[in-house]
Amino acid sequence: MGMQKPSIPKGTRDFGQREMAERNYIFDTIRSVYRTYGYVQIETPAMENLSTLLGKYGDEGDKLLFRILNSGDAFAKADLSDPAGLVRQVCEKGLRYDLTVPFARYVVQHQSEISFPFRRFQIQPVWRADRPQKGRYREFYQCDADVIGSTSQINELELVQIVDRVFTLLDIRVLVKVNNRKVLTGLAEIAGCPDKVVDITVAIDKLDKIGLEAVEQEMRERGLSEQAVAVIEPILLLEGDTASKLARMRALMNGGSASGLVSETGLRGLDELEELFGFIAAADLRQEVEIDLSLARGLNYYTGAIFEVKACDFPIGSICGGGRYDNLTGIFGLPGLSGVGISFGADRIYDVLKGLDKFPPSLATVTTLLFANMDSAAVPYLIPVAKALREAGIACEIYPDTSKLKKQFDYADRKGIPFISIVGSDEMASNKLNIKNLNTGEQCSFEKEDIKSIKNFLQL
Fold it and tell me: Which of 94, 290, 139, 262 is nearest to 194 (CA)?
């Protein structure tokens, strides 16, 4: 038998040391900001019962679930004469498809020990049996934060503040777009076709990509009358600041459109937007936030505010999004809990940081100091120094093999180790340690016990 060439499944990938350092930089930044807003971290298992997952993502989602065989001999007891029911017989579990459904299950299962409002964040991989293509993986990480059990828009504000802080720390300029699902419902109502919310929003969602005329043509193709299109058009052309957009919309929702219809739902949505933008004005954000009345996002699920975040200096889809939903836990028998959440697109944020060259250069450096191994007699002398430095938080290595100095310098260079220490019999006799900064060429000699001074020299 020939040697098998190692490989990994399509749509998955390895993360080497460099990628891990860069990904951890993103996750650590997000995690630190979540914590300052009182969010707690939870994790749920990679697999859930299929009964938890099926029927929650629509037919398309059900097809994309990875199912897991009950055991290695799952087929032993299976009734092979029933091919249609075979999957049900041999698979009772599946890999999770997102973090939201497991979160809903978690809240219902642990409701007696949770303090509401419950603010949780979760950073874990999810799996989808999708066709792998550029930027689409079968295993990828989601990074979610939700607060459940409160209807206050202070929660929405804080999620916008979290987005603002995270991207300010990552040094990425973003535009945060905000809309409200009730305004979209109101739009369909004053256009005289309340049953066409999805058709209208799917069309206007493409405004950026295909332009106004093509959007109007698509609405006609989706069965909207000329009058309906005439009602919607001025809304798509709204300009100006937040206050003037809201005032104009309020007039239209209140009977001022071509149809003369009034939408209570639409007016409620505008009240919510007005309150939220009042909070945002008080929060003094660094990034830009605007109302975008064409913003639709995964419609069927949201009931209030909707968010989407775009990078300003790098062409890529949205890098963060979310919204409010009224009945996430109802599917598991606990109705009436409203929640709002966001999800950071870690893979896309990674691409933006890479593309704009915004990762800190120090991320690649793991080891700070290499103790050269010139003479095996020096090793017992170095072991306690290395131990003391590690306890003081300095990453160091003793080169394990006695070998030519050039080889050890090459090793330090390849690993990006900035300092080297070469100890010979003279240093040992005088209880000294000399250290060279490989970037500047500067050399210094220290008392072996003076860990504080050594640490200061290494933390330039």
Answer: 262
